[in-house]
Specification:
Elements lengths: L1 H26 L5 H17 L6 H9 L2 H7 L7 H19 L4 H22 L12 H12 L6
Length: 155
């Protein structure tokens, strides 16, 4: 009986996560069903990082360097600074909402990542325009600046 209840809870948790994910994908303008499935698989791989026994900074570094994070941050190649900040904030909100499906330690690191990303995004938007070279993608510049802001990479 208890194992049946656990399976039911796990299915409900997965359905809730899938609903949150679909909502997030709609917010950022990715409507293709096959692409969404690919993103969801890479998202679940990113979530598995938070189940590891690494330190919080190591998990945050792995999450930001994950395939999912990279795909999301480079999905829209024509975005400007304001749109990149909005995308980053939407990603933060989604990570925080998905943290409610995690156990305590996972939830803490996911919330830490979301809050750190949000702070970095706010700091980046005001200073990034001057750093952009001709022909350089805003997505790449923004993504690199996020890594620097989080202490994952150096200039």
């Amino acid at each position: 009986m208890l194992s049946s209840y656990r399976r039911l809870l796990e299915r409900e948790r997965e359905q809730n996560l899938l609903h949150q994910f679909d909502t997030f994908m709609g917010q950022i303008g990715i409507q293709d069903g096959q692409a969404s499935e690919d993103y969801f698989e890479s998202f679940k791989q990113m979530l598995s990082i938070f189940e590891s026994k690494g330190s919080a900074p190591e998990m945050m570094k792995e999450a930001v360097e994950s395939e999912f994070f990279t795909k999301i941050m480079t999905a829209k190649t024509s975005f400007r600074e304001r749109e990149m900040r909005k995308l980053t904030h939407q990603l933060c909100d989604f990570i925080e909402r998905s943290a409610s499906n995690s156990v305590d330690d996972e939830s803490f690191v996911q919330s830490l990542l979301a809050n750190s990303l949000r702070s970095a995004a706010d700091a980046i938007e005001s200073s990034i325009r001057e750093q952009r070279s001709e022909g350089e993608s805003m997505n790449d510049l923004w993504f690199d600046a996020l890594k620097v802001g989080l202490g994952i990479s150096k200039i």
